[in-house]
Amino acid sequence: METRQPYSTDLTDGEWDHLEQLAPAPKTGGRRPEHTRREILNGIFYAVRSGCAWRLLPNDLPPWGTVYHYFWLWRRQGLWETIHTTLREGVRQAAGREKQPSGAILDSQSVRTSEQGGVRGYDGAKKLCGRKRHILVDTMGLVLLVMVTAANVQDRDGGCGLLTALAWQFRRLRVIWADGAYAGDLVTWVRGLRVWGRVRLEIVRKPKGVKGFKVVPWRWIVERTFAWLGRSRRLKCDYERLPETTEAIIHITMIRLMVRRLTA
Q: Could you tell me which of 260, 263, 245 has the C-alpha nearest to residue 80?
């Protein structure tokens, strides 16, 4: 097999050691796979980081149809989310923390969509037509939950849909910090979301009289996470027809970041 010059998005040997045990093994029997799982992942990471269309993948990577097939298949199987969860717990443990967080931060981000079809809406506050990404992150900035909706969905409504998962996930979570857009009925709704280990929603506001930019406690953490996601050009604009595809790309972006941390 011919060797090629590596791209900056390629997995190192140490990074592949972490992912090899999480990626599904090739099926037994039949024809021997032409491309390794490592090279397929390299193709997926290249497309997400560079923002190129699948058909424009370099010729020295596996064919775009093969790379896209596995991206699509593993999304349908929920594998990206499974890998993401395992790596997140590993990163937290490596930092001397519990697998599950006790505190989290909630926020959303509106982005424009391309001419591709799919759900979209107009965000009057940001004055753009597109989609909104609702995310919940821990105090390290690692994504806990993500949900993509039309941009015209109010933050409180999106937060309600996102946080519904807390009824059966993250039992150790006790407090969520958010900005003023989530004030109101959502605070009461979160308090009654589950009967065990109640979680509360705390609104963190900018100090009165302060104008312009001001670093607000806790809220800056989720803004940093949005900045991490913005490094992947595939997420600068929402090119996908299905919101679930964008959610998978967010998981992939965080997977690449976390596996790098585990080998740093």
A: 245
Comparing C-alpha atoms, which of 78, 18, 70 is closest to residue 45?
A: 70
Domain range summary for the chain, segments of one domain joined by +: 13-76, 100-240
Per-residue pLDDT reduced to its tens digit, 33-87: 889 999 999 999 999 999 999 999 999 999 999 999 999 999 999 999 999 999 9
Could you tell me the fold of the domain covering 100-240?
Answer: Nucleotidyltransferase; domain 5 (3.30.420)
- Percent of the chain whose pLDDT exceeds 90: 83
- Helix and strand element counts for the chain (H, E): 8, 6
Q: Which pLDDT tens digit goes with each residue over 22-43?
A: 998 887 777 788 899 999 999 9
The pLDDT, as a whole number, for residue 2 is 55
In terms of C-beta density within 10 A (0-12 exposed, 13-18 middle, 19 or more buried), how is residue 28 classed? exposed
pLDDT at 17 over 60: yes
d(CA 129, CA 112): 6
**Rounded-to-integer distance, Cα 244 and Cα 119, Å:** 11
Angle 127-128-132 from CA coordinates, rounded to 5°: 115
- How far does Cα 152 stand from its chain's mean position? 20
Give CA–CA dist 258/244, Å, rounded: 21
